[in-house]
Amino acid sequence: MKHVSFVIFALIATFALAPHASAQAPKKPGQTIFGEDRKATMKAMRGISKALGEKCTYCHVKEGGKVVYTTDTPHKQAARQMKSAFIDSLVANGQAEASFDHHGKSKVIKANYTTKGDDAGIHLVAQEGEGEQHTLKVSLPKKGEALNCKTCHGGRVHILAKEEKK
Hints:
Blueprint: H1 2-17, H2 21-24, H3 38-52, E1 61-63, E2 66-68, H4 74-93, E3 95-102, E4 105-114, E5 121-128, E6 133-138, H5 149-153
Protein backbone atom coordinates (compact mmCIF):
# COMPACT_ATOMS: atom_id res chain seq x y z
CA MET A 1 0.00 0.00 0.00
CA LYS A 2 2.87 2.30 0.81
CA HIS A 3 4.36 1.78 -2.66
CA VAL A 4 1.01 2.38 -4.40
CA SER A 5 0.58 5.69 -2.56
CA PHE A 6 4.08 6.74 -3.54
CA VAL A 7 3.48 5.85 -7.22
CA ILE A 8 0.18 7.77 -7.27
CA PHE A 9 1.85 10.77 -5.63
CA ALA A 10 4.73 10.63 -8.15
CA LEU A 11 2.31 10.48 -11.10
CA ILE A 12 0.25 13.40 -9.81
CA ALA A 13 3.39 15.46 -9.21
CA THR A 14 4.73 14.62 -12.66
CA PHE A 15 1.54 15.70 -14.44
CA ALA A 16 1.09 18.78 -12.28
CA LEU A 17 4.62 20.02 -12.94
CA ALA A 18 4.78 19.06 -16.64
CA PRO A 19 4.34 21.86 -19.21
CA HIS A 20 0.99 22.01 -20.94
CA ALA A 21 0.67 19.84 -24.02
CA SER A 22 0.15 22.88 -26.26
CA ALA A 23 3.59 24.17 -25.30
CA GLN A 24 5.14 20.88 -26.35
CA ALA A 25 3.14 20.44 -29.54
CA PRO A 26 5.30 20.61 -32.66
CA LYS A 27 4.86 23.67 -34.85
CA LYS A 28 3.03 23.29 -38.12
CA PRO A 29 5.23 23.12 -41.23
CA GLY A 30 6.10 26.69 -42.21
CA GLN A 31 4.89 28.18 -38.92
CA THR A 32 7.05 30.96 -37.54
CA ILE A 33 6.57 33.90 -35.19
CA PHE A 34 5.66 35.81 -38.35
CA GLY A 35 2.87 33.50 -39.57
CA GLU A 36 0.73 30.47 -38.78
CA ASP A 37 1.58 28.61 -41.99
CA ARG A 38 3.92 28.84 -44.97
CA LYS A 39 1.61 31.15 -46.94
CA ALA A 40 1.18 33.61 -44.05
CA THR A 41 4.89 33.49 -43.23
CA MET A 42 5.89 34.20 -46.85
CA LYS A 43 3.44 37.13 -46.98
CA ALA A 44 4.90 38.53 -43.75
CA MET A 45 8.44 38.05 -45.06
CA ARG A 46 7.62 40.00 -48.25
CA GLY A 47 6.32 42.81 -46.03
CA ILE A 48 9.49 42.79 -43.92
CA SER A 49 11.69 42.74 -47.02
CA LYS A 50 9.83 45.76 -48.41
CA ALA A 51 9.88 47.55 -45.02
CA LEU A 52 13.67 47.16 -44.80
CA GLY A 53 14.31 47.85 -48.48
CA GLU A 54 16.32 44.65 -48.76
CA LYS A 55 16.09 41.37 -50.66
CA CYS A 56 15.35 38.06 -48.95
CA THR A 57 19.05 37.22 -48.92
CA TYR A 58 19.67 40.05 -46.44
CA CYS A 59 18.46 37.61 -43.75
CA HIS A 60 18.47 34.26 -45.58
CA VAL A 61 21.37 32.39 -47.17
CA LYS A 62 21.41 30.90 -50.66
CA GLU A 63 22.85 27.48 -51.34
CA GLY A 64 22.88 25.89 -54.77
CA GLY A 65 20.83 28.77 -56.19
CA LYS A 66 17.99 28.30 -53.67
CA VAL A 67 17.18 30.23 -50.51
CA VAL A 68 17.59 28.06 -47.41
CA TYR A 69 15.06 29.41 -44.93
CA THR A 70 16.07 27.18 -42.01
CA THR A 71 19.68 28.40 -41.72
CA ASP A 72 20.01 30.89 -38.88
CA THR A 73 21.83 34.18 -39.50
CA PRO A 74 22.56 37.27 -37.38
CA HIS A 75 20.03 39.31 -39.38
CA LYS A 76 17.34 36.67 -38.80
CA GLN A 77 18.11 36.74 -35.08
CA ALA A 78 17.81 40.52 -35.04
CA ALA A 79 14.51 40.38 -36.95
CA ARG A 80 13.07 37.84 -34.51
CA GLN A 81 14.16 39.94 -31.56
CA MET A 82 12.73 43.11 -33.08
CA LYS A 83 9.40 41.31 -33.62
CA SER A 84 9.02 39.45 -30.34
CA ALA A 85 10.92 41.59 -27.84
CA PHE A 86 10.50 44.97 -29.49
CA ILE A 87 7.32 45.43 -31.54
CA ASP A 88 5.17 43.17 -29.36
CA SER A 89 6.53 44.77 -26.17
CA LEU A 90 6.06 48.27 -27.56
CA VAL A 91 2.41 47.54 -28.32
CA ALA A 92 1.77 45.83 -24.96
CA ASN A 93 3.80 48.08 -22.64
CA GLY A 94 4.35 51.35 -24.48
CA GLN A 95 8.11 50.87 -24.30
CA ALA A 96 10.67 48.40 -25.55
CA GLU A 97 14.36 47.63 -25.63
CA ALA A 98 16.37 45.30 -27.83
CA SER A 99 20.08 44.54 -27.81
CA PHE A 100 22.05 42.57 -30.37
CA ASP A 101 25.50 42.25 -31.91
CA HIS A 102 26.24 44.76 -34.65
CA HIS A 103 29.73 44.87 -36.19
CA GLY A 104 31.18 43.18 -33.11
CA LYS A 105 29.65 45.68 -30.69
CA SER A 106 26.46 45.58 -28.68
CA LYS A 107 23.75 47.74 -30.24
CA VAL A 108 20.92 48.80 -27.96
CA ILE A 109 17.69 50.24 -29.33
CA LYS A 110 15.06 51.68 -27.00
CA ALA A 111 11.61 53.01 -27.82
CA ASN A 112 8.72 54.76 -26.10
CA TYR A 113 5.27 54.75 -27.68
CA THR A 114 3.38 57.96 -26.86
CA THR A 115 -0.17 58.15 -28.19
CA LYS A 116 -1.41 61.51 -26.87
CA GLY A 117 -0.37 65.13 -26.93
CA ASP A 118 2.04 67.12 -29.04
CA ASP A 119 4.73 64.53 -28.40
CA ALA A 120 2.71 61.61 -29.84
CA GLY A 121 4.86 59.18 -31.78
CA ILE A 122 7.46 56.48 -31.38
CA HIS A 123 10.60 57.89 -29.78
CA LEU A 124 13.66 55.81 -30.68
CA VAL A 125 17.18 55.89 -29.22
CA ALA A 126 20.02 53.70 -30.49
CA GLN A 127 23.58 53.33 -29.33
CA GLU A 128 26.31 51.05 -30.59
CA GLY A 129 28.87 50.22 -27.92
CA GLU A 130 30.07 53.44 -26.27
CA GLY A 131 29.39 55.41 -29.45
CA GLU A 132 27.11 58.33 -30.10
CA GLN A 133 23.41 58.04 -29.29
CA HIS A 134 21.10 58.50 -32.25
CA THR A 135 17.48 59.57 -31.76
CA LEU A 136 14.47 59.65 -34.03
CA LYS A 137 10.77 60.33 -33.62
CA VAL A 138 8.55 58.27 -35.91
CA SER A 139 4.89 59.01 -36.59
CA LEU A 140 2.31 56.62 -35.17
CA PRO A 141 0.66 54.15 -37.55
CA LYS A 142 -2.46 55.49 -39.24
CA LYS A 143 -5.74 54.79 -37.45
CA GLY A 144 -6.70 51.15 -37.95
CA GLU A 145 -3.17 50.10 -38.98
CA ALA A 146 -1.03 47.86 -36.80
CA LEU A 147 2.48 48.73 -35.68
CA ASN A 148 4.92 46.78 -37.84
CA CYS A 149 8.44 46.95 -39.31
CA LYS A 150 7.41 49.47 -41.96
CA THR A 151 6.14 51.91 -39.30
CA CYS A 152 9.70 52.78 -38.33
CA HIS A 153 11.85 51.48 -41.16
CA GLY A 154 9.88 52.79 -44.14
CA GLY A 155 12.10 51.05 -46.70
CA ARG A 156 15.47 51.49 -44.95
CA VAL A 157 17.38 49.15 -42.64
CA HIS A 158 19.41 51.82 -40.84
CA ILE A 159 17.01 54.50 -39.67
CA LEU A 160 18.90 55.96 -36.73
CA ALA A 161 22.37 56.46 -38.20
CA LYS A 162 23.75 57.33 -41.59
CA GLU A 163 23.77 54.25 -43.80
CA GLU A 164 27.14 52.92 -44.84
CA LYS A 165 27.84 52.92 -48.56
CA LYS A 166 27.86 49.42 -50.02
